[in-house]
Structure formats: structure tokens, C-alpha cells
Amino acid sequence: xxxxxxxxxxxxxxxxxxxxxxxxxxxxxxxxxxxxxxxxxxxxxxxxxxxxxxxxxxxxxxxxxxxxxxxxxxxxxxxxxxxxxxxxxxxxxxxxxxxxxxxxxxxxxxxxxxxxxxxxxxxxxxxxxxxxxxxxxxxxxxxxxxxxxxxxxxxxxxxxxxxxxxxxxxxxx
Length: 173
Description:
Layout: E1 3-8, H1 15-26, E2 28-32, H2 33-41, H3 50-74, E3 78-82, H4 88-101, E4 104-112, H5 114-127, H6 138-147, H7 153-156, E5 160-166
Parallel strand pairs: 1-3, 1-4, 2-3, 4-5
Helix pairs in contact: 2-3
């Protein structure tokens, strides 16, 4: 049975690098909210009031990503999802979708020290390498960091959850 690998964590924790390695290891398709948002809406991003604009569009993308995920799983294709879900309620809503459809879910929670994550985001902004999809300003970094809600014991109950702490530049091999 195909499996969903959900990769979550605060901004700059190494989720994209980890997700790409998971795809290789599991012969999986990678679906990334950042890639969808950039591909569809980059040119439309406003200068001000970005958060309401982002939230509405990101939810539409997540809904489409879920539709694609369902089709892939039904064709016995593993999927690696990197779709934000930085708050507990968002994750609970996602779990309900997964549970309703009876799909197999593995959750990978990445984290790192805030200063390391900040440095990684700054470097990614400058280098614009393989995991770059959009620039993350210091203000957006702080906002996203403040919105991250860590996993509780209750949230992990009955779920297949792995915690990964990144202590240096992420290299998953």
C-alpha cells in the first residue's frame, strides 16, 4: 500500500532537503506547497497585506495537492508532502482527511535551533539552489517562526511520528 510521508517543521529546518531524499529512498512523488505557490502566484504577490493573500491561496493549493495525492496513492505511488501545516489545527484537519480515506501516513518532524534555521534561510536566499522557491525575508522568517506550533504528546498518539533534530547543515543520505 502506498504511503504519505508528511514532512513538517519550522521555517529553515531542512524540510525540503529531507523531502527530496525521502522521495529517492521511497520512489515517491514530492508535492511542495512552496513550489505550487511560486509557480502559480509569484507574480501576483502584493507588497503589503501578504498574510491574508497567502493564506487564501495556500489553502486552495493544499486542496489541489490533496486531490493529486489521492490519485497518486490510489495508483500505489508513494507521496512526500511538504505543505506547511505549521499549526496544530491545520495538521488535525489534514489528519482527518487522511483518516477518512484510510491512507497510510508517516510524519517526519524536523527541527533545529532558531539561529541555525535563520542562517540556513539567509544562505538559501543568497544561493537560490535546489530547494529555493521563494525569498524568505527576515520579517517573514520571524512571523513563520512565531506561528510554528510544536507537536504535543497528544498529537502523536496513534500516529507514526519521527522527530529529527538538525544540528548542522542538513545532509540526508
